[in-house]
Specification:
With 312 residues, the protein is mainly alpha-helical. 76% of the residues lie in helices and 0% in strands. Helix 7 packs antiparallel against helix 13, helix 9 runs antiparallel to helix 10 and helix 10 runs antiparallel to helix 13. The chain is elongated, with a radius of gyration of 29 Å. The N terminus and C terminus are likely disordered. Keywords: Membrane, Transmembrane, Transmembrane helix.
Length: 312
């Protein structure tokens, strides 16, 4: 079996991945492809017009055929031209508007892509880390690791750890002059800064919520004591000077919105680096070795299953 080059299916998948997945969210490469198709349609309709003029004195219907061809490609050219200059941007805008109507879930924030799959593999992570270091974009990788390793905080499910987490993110990645300062738009940075300021002001309330809800007051030994402890805990939670249910709901929505914007910007930066990374020989060798290992593992499982089939 020849393993010198990847399979055709992998190459097709890789091409589609570069065009669609790595182009997210603004799809500049897809827009460039539409420009090329528009330019090609323009050339064909111009050539058809020239040829129809050349064959206008012929006895057959050749000139008529070229006129029809010119009309078809002129229509295609006009439609793509109008779509590129306005329609394409409108589609992207509507996509974002539709996406923002609902609160993002954990799977949406950290969607499984080839980049994520590469980072989940130790060898792939080390290769991409080394390449990011050469590209001076290591800060995006480290911030992404912070976000993906603290999903419960990012999704607003662990408010007690939120203040320290945001302090660490701000100190290491967001504030000016930080050791791994990331390049994100001002809107994303302002969302984080405002949330960080609000969380800092509510720090004592969040920590008190954690102690009241998760730290037992005593060790109940009987069902009656357990019931009394539950009532006491609920009453204590109601009397807290911290967050009420409405404040917690609003805070969770702000947390998800903030980290959704931050994770998207980080993914844009990482995808830009990853797009160059997949063209390197180290990544191609990594993919080839991984496919070979996967193929060998599948064959081993099939052989083991065939051996087990004869066991009585």
């Amino acid at each position: 079996m020849n393993t010198d080059r990847p399979s055709l299916s992998f190459e097709r998948k890789n091409v589609l991945f570069r065009i669609l997945q790595l182009d997210n969210p603004l799809y500049f490469r897809m827009e460039m492809i539409l420009f090329l198709v528009c330019f090609l349609a323009c050339l064909i309709q111009m050539m058809s017009g020239i040829l129809s003029h050349e064959f206008k004195d012929s006895q057959d219907d050749t000139a008529q055929y070229f006129l029809v061809l010119q009309c078809i490609f002129e229509t295609i050219y006009s439609a793509i031209y109008v779509f590129i200059f306005g329609g394409f941007a409108l589609v992207i805008l509507l996509r974002f508007k539709t996406k923002k109507r609902s609160i993002a879930t954990s799977d949406e924030l950290f969607e499984q892509t080839e980049l994520i799959e590469t980072l989940q593999d130790q060898s792939g992570f080390e290769l991409f880390e080394e390449y990011s270091k050469k590209e001076f974009s290591l800060e995006n990788l480290y911030l992404f690791l912070e976000l993906i390793q603290n999903k419960s905080i990012v999704m607003g499910d662990n408010l007690s750890l939120l203040p320290m987490f945001m302090d660490r993110i701000n100190e290491n990645f967001i504030c000016s002059g930080s050791i791994y300062e990331v390049n994100v738009p001002s809107l994303t940075k302002n969302l984080f800064t405002e949330l960080h300021f609000y969380v800092s002001s509510k720090r004592s309330a969040l920590l008190s919520c954690n102690q009241a809800l998760f730290s037992p007051v005593n060790e109940p030994t009987s069902p009656e004591n357990q019931f009394n402890a539950l009532l006491f805990g609920n009453e204590l939670h109601k009397q807290l000077d911290g967050l009420n249910e409405e404040e917690e709901r609003i805070l969770k929505a702000r947390i998800i919105t903030c980290f959704d914007s931050l994770s998207q910007q980080i993914m844009i930066n990482m995808n830009d680096t990853f797009y160059r990374f997949i063209s390197t020989s180290s990544f191609k060798n990594y993919r080839k070795n991984k496919e070979m290992f996967t193929s060998m593992a599948k064959q081993t499982n099939i052989m083991a299953w065939q051996d087990d089939a004869y066991i009585v």
